[in-house]
């Protein structure tokens, strides 16, 4: 397993896997904030799915636990499943980044994400799936095959939404995007590139989705009012970064 290391600067605590490359970050004076922009965008499934009792969300790759903490705090009706293969990351998330211990709403599994998505007993179980899987080199997601993304599709209910963090300026970007598009029947949207070349992609399963952008903007504002999540750029970003979405959202 890769070594887990930390650094702090300007009131921000960072997670590393034995290199200077950042695997996650937390503002010390506000541990429950999602500090990194791409991490915030990983919550964009909230634009399209109403939270309700019995809803299930899975995170593949724990990192600093930013998504886990946010969902646990702001979405009390949701049952959260976290998949993380490295036990040191699980310990670090709890001890250094204040991720809550498992309870009736949170379950952490120390297993490989590939095995998780291949488990047929989990098919059609999750409403949303968040994937952020990187190793110490950070040259692209550590899970990128068509089989992996097909497994992600199978895990989702209908309707269901996948969000995944991609690395835009590397050959892995086209590989991941092509495999994701094939697995999700080309129903994929991209956010504009954020810091450090991160691009969040969204895959959709279920009935075709049509919405006026004005309604998407209203939904984003509601999310920000309820959770404090910075959502003002979400609708404009999705509208301008994707072809044939100028007049209305169709996916």
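Q: What amino acid sequence fits the structure above?
A:
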């Amino acid at each position: 397993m890769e070594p887990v290391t930390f650094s702090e600067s300007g009131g921000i605590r960072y997670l590393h896997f034995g290199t200077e490359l950042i695997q996650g970050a937390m503002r010390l004076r506000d541990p429950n904030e999602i500090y990194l922009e791409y991490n915030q965008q990983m919550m964009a499934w909230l634009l399209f799915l109403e939270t309700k009792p019995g809803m299930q969300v899975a995170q593949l790759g724990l990192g600093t636990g930013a998504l886990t903490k946010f969902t646990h705090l702001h979405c009390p009706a949701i049952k959260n499943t976290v998949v993380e293969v490295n036990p040191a990351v699980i310990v670090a998330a709890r001890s250094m980044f204040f991720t809550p211990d498992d309870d009736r709403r949170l379950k952490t599994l120390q297993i490989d994400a590939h095995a998780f998505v291949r488990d047929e007993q989990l098919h059609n179980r999750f409403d949303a799936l968040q994937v952020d899987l990187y190793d110490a080199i950070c040259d692209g997601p550590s899970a990128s095959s068509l089989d992996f993304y097909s497994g992600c599709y199978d895990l989702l209910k209908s309707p269901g939404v996948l969000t995944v963090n991609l690395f835009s300026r590397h050959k892995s970007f086209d590989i991941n995007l092509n495999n994701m598009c094939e697995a999700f029947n080309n129903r994929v949207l991209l956010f504009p590139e954020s810091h450090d070349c991160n691009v969040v992609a969204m895959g959709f399963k279920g009935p075709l989705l049509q919405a006026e952008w004005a309604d998407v903007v209203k939904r984003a504002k509601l999310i920000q009012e309820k959770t404090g999540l910075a959502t003002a750029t979400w609708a404009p970003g999705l509208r301008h970064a994707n072809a044939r979405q100028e007049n209305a959202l169709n996916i």
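Q: And what stands out in the fold?
A: The longest strand covers residues 156-167.
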